[in-house]
Amino acid sequence: MATVALPRSRPRGTNRQSDNYFFSGIALLILLTVLVGFARTYFLAGVFRAPLPSLLVHIHGAVFSSWILLLITQITLVSAGRVDIHRRLGLAGFGLACLMVILGVLTASKLLARGVSPVPVFDAQTFYAIPIGGMVIFATLIFFAYRERFHPAAHKRLILIATIAILDAPTGRPPFTVITARPFMDSVVVYAFLLLLIAYDLWSTRKVQRATIWGTAFVVVIGQLRVPIGNTAVWHTFATWVQTLAR
Fold first, then answer.
1. Where on the phi/psi map is residue 10: left (φ > 0), alpha (ψ -120 to 50), or beta?
2. Omega before 152 cis (within 30°)?
3. What pTM does this model have?
4. pLDDT recorded at residue 215
5. Low-confidence ranges of the chain (pLDDT < 50)
């Protein structure tokens, strides 16, 4: 089979330009996913007038939506060459990420206190492991992304993977439930985004970046362990304690 020799390195600026296109495109795709997933219950319901259980849920939705907008803003700043503003805004972004984790845990705990499980096949205690596990994934990846802030290739991949990891919230709602409600398909959209990143790595650098490998593996492994952990007696004891405390 005939082969074509490829240069070992690309001209300066080529990878940067392709990165700008890819990360901008996937960020917009994430935004579209969030808008579609929460359209019926939040965005098209009037946002602050949406029929949500409490003010906490409204704040939770606004803060998580702000994270997606910040992601797009940060990518745009890098594409425009304003890395100085990007870095200063990154400190606010780290604070926003910490707030997201706190609000995510509080919102999940309030849902548990009401004894509600959005997934009928799980009781409230079992389901509680899903959002808590999601916050563990997000917080861990954001921590390592912060550590790698002086290594742009790893930093932006970890930020992206952390954002992808929390997409099971919008994709667990209509119209995505046509796919995600089927057995073993609950995380298919999340995995599709991760595969896009892997494919881009292979195309742009001829290898899968280390941050992509470890970040993707962490999302998949912890994500798949959430329900088995949620079914254990130890977790149910813990969840019952949280439920009593939250009430």
1. beta
2. no
3. 0.90
4. 98
5. 1-14
